[in-house]
Structures are given as C-alpha cells and as structure tokens.
Amino acid sequence: MKQFISLICLIIVLTIVGCVPARKYEELEAKYNKSLADAELFKTKSQDCEAEKLEIESQLTELKKKHAIVSEDLANLERSYKETLRQYEEIKENHKILKDQYDALLKLSERESQLLGKELDAARLELQKKEDELNRLATELNQKEDRLAQLQTDLESREKRVNELEDIISKKDAAAEALRQKIANALLGFKDKGLTVEEKDGKVYVSMEAKLLFASGKTDVGSEGKKAIVQLAKALEGQEDIDVLVEGHTDTDEMRGSGHPKDNWELSVLRATAVVKIMTSSSSIDPKILTAAGRSKFIPIGEDKAKNRRIEVILIPKLTELFEIISND
User: Fold this and answer.
1) Which of 26, 134, 215, 242 is most buried, with most CB under 10 Å away?
2) By CB neighbour count within 10 A (0-12 exposed, 13-18 middle, 19+ buried), where does 210 fall?
C-alpha cells in the first residue's frame, strides 16, 4: 500500500508540474521498487543466515554429544572384547590341559575315561561359545568404529562450515566498523550539526537532520549540507562491496498549501533524490550502488520532530560470499 501511494504521488507530480520526463520517472520508480525488493531480500537472507547458523550450531552440539556416547560405547566394547579374549585364552589353555590329561588317562578305567570325556566335551562347548561371542564382539566393534569415524567426519565438516560462516560474518562486521570509522572521520566537522554515524546489524547508518540540509518544506540542499554530502560521497569512492540506500524521512506535520511538494511522501522522495544527485555529480561513486527512497513520516526515531526530519544514508555490505556458502550446502 505504501508503494502504491508513493507511486500515485509521483504520477500526480509528473502530470501537474511536468518537470520530470516520463523516462526519468520510470527510472526512479524502478530504483525505488528495486530498493524495496533488495531491502526485503537482504532482510530475509540475513534472517535465514542467522537461523542457519543457529541450526548448524545446534546440530554441532548434538553431534558432539553423539560422538562422546559412541566413544564411551567403543571403550566399553574394547574392554569387553579384551576380557572375552582373556577368558577365551584361559579356556583354551584349560582345554589343552584337559586334553593332555585325557590322553594320559586313556589307559585308566572306562568309567574315569567317560567322566573325563564329558568334561572335555563341556570344555569344547564352552570354548565354542566364547569363540562365537568373540566373533560377535569383533563385528560389533568394527561397526562402532565405522560409526565413530562417520560421526567424526560429520563433526569436522560441520565445524568447518560454522567456522567459515563465523569468519565471513566477522570480516563483514570488521569491514562495516572500518567503513563507519572512515565515514565518521570524513564528517567529523559536522558532528555537532545534526549528523551522526553509527554501525548497527552489520550496516552503517549516516543520519543527517533536515536542518543541516534543507530549509523548511524545501528540497534544495543548502551550501553547508552540500559540503557534508560531498565529503560523504568522496569517502565512498571506490567502494564496490556495498549498496548505498538514501532514505528521506519527514515528521508527522502535514504539508500546507497547494504547491509542491504536495505531501510528506513527495517531500521525502524528492529530498532523497536531491542528495543522490549531489553525490553522483560531485564524486566518482558508482551510481549503480545508489538508491533513493522516500519513507515519509512512518519511521520516526522518537518524539523529537526535528530529529525525525532527516536523511539517512544506509551503507549495506554485499553478502555474496556468505550466500554462496549457504547455497552450496
């Protein structure tokens, strides 16, 4: 609905005043729509990225728990295997002793020989049972070792992917902070004139109060405001890994009179466009990374109307590398 109202306002302006050619209007509309789509896409992908990271960290924790359980089972199985092997060797030795005794007593009475034969048969049966148990344990041990190796591989893969994601996010945060510091240093002379620079959620926000840039209800930038915009544009020259969104904001006071700008939507769009034009005309900044947008009165930052009347230049890092890692999973 906001996009529709904005479009209607622009059509009225172009129809009544005739100041902006149809082609220029279409370009502005396309840029505005792209800005909204890009902003929504970035927000969605950023949320997906954060959710993906939380999910991977949860899976990593679960894998570590399973790894510990399998390791403990393997250790218990190895102990059981060694104990069974010891018993097997002991029974085997007893069997040998009994067989030797049996051979030595073959010449004894038939009754004694039968008793010894029964003991020997029982020893053979016990030996066979231990051999079967030993084989079963050996098979189970091999299965556990294979499972443990697979879990170890999965764990290492998950840890590597989490480390890659965290490394890229860390680099993007560091780059955003470095860019914020660079912009803050470039605009240091305007610090007490209604201009602030801050980094938030991986983006850099340059907020300029309207009193620094425009006269009341006007869209032409004053000389002092032009200096600030030119210095900002110069600081952004050569930046290819960011998108720059210039947003116009107004207070809640309705426009008076029948002239132009006609309302707060139109005022916010024209002011944002005026800032973009100064940035492109006074520097070598790539126009492809710039977008002008009007937000009217609907995103205030507080009760102070003077602070709500502002231009916000939002520097948005491109997260192509991060999205490639996620999409290749």
Assistant:
1) 242
2) buried
* Rounded Cα gap, residues 78 and 62, in angstroms: 24
Whether residue 211 is found in the same domain as residue 314:
yes
Q: How far is CA 69 from CA 55, 72, 143, 147, in A?
A: 21, 5, 14, 11
249 contacts 268 by C-beta, under 8 angstroms = yes
For the chain, the farthest-separated pair of C-alpha atoms sits apart, in whole angstroms, at 133
Q: Is the predicted pLDDT of residue 268 greater than 50, yes or no?
A: yes
Helices (H), 187-315: 210-213, 223-235, 264-281, 305-308
pLDDT on residue 277: 97
The boundaries of the domain holding residue 82 are 59-171
Distances (CA, A) of 216 to 168, 231, 292, 306: 44, 23, 20, 11
Give the pLDDT mean for 240-268.
90
Whether 51 and 66 map to the same domain: the answer is: no
Domain stops at, among 171, 186, 217: 171
Taking residues 299-326, report their average pLDDT.
82
pLDDT tens digit sequence for 289-302: 999 999 999 999 99
CB 71 within 8 A of CB 144: no
Whether the link from the prior residue into 21 is cis, omega within 30° of 0, is: no
Examine the domain organization and report whether 166 and 183 are in the same domain: no
CA dist., res. 286 & res. 233, Å (int): 10
